[in-house]
Amino acid sequence: MDIINTKRFVLRVHPAGLALMVVAAFMGHGEQALLTVAALLVHEGFHMAAILVLGTRAGRIELTPFGGVAEVESFQSLPASWQALIALSGVLGSLFCYFALGFAPAGGSRLQAFRQMNLMLGLFNLLPILPLDGARALGALADQLRWGRWIRKGMMGLAFGIALLMLGLAIYGAWHGHINITLIFAAPYLCYAARRAYVAQRLRLADERLRMGAKLGRDKMWKVDGVAIKNSVPKHELLKMLLALPGSRLHYFFLLNPVTGKVERVMEEGEVIEEIMGEGE
Question: Where are the domains of the chain?
Answer without folding.
Answer: 2-213, 223-279
